[in-house]
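S1.2 Input.
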Amino acid sequence: MTTYIKKEPQELKQVLSLVQRMRKHEINNNLAARVVPPHLNSATMKKDVDPNALKIGSKEALEYVSWLVNPNRLFDVALTTYDFDLVTLVATQTQKDPKEYVPYLKELKSFASPHYMKYKVHTDLKNYAKALQKLSQSTDDAHFEEALHLVKKQRLYKDALDCYSS
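S1.3 Output.
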């Protein structure tokens, strides 16, 4: 993870991909840091951590990454993965205000078209060429009008020719 972060340019999408795989592995194998309460540990009568439990999980890895990377940048890259569980995990780990990101994630989930949702993410991140590419994959005519407006406003004529060549 450190290697991906220290590369120039940073490959944060690869880092989040590793965290995502760790998280899926934890969920599939039911691995978590299990704490044995004192009343179940009759030998020591102290709170212990299960030695068979996972030592470093996705949350610990994400905590490490959040120390090395700008939290806002990490959140933005997490949005481009379109995995809202990962986005929520990153937001809580980087201590973002839930009042800010929860309504935004609900709005994104409410879109019927996944292409329009991806368009909205890239538009909000001001990555207009990528937004146009995602919107061009939609088949809805209303989205074509919005794409036309985006092309005119952001002067994306060359990108529009590539996306709408057919």
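S1.4 Remarks. The first helix runs from residue 2 to 6.
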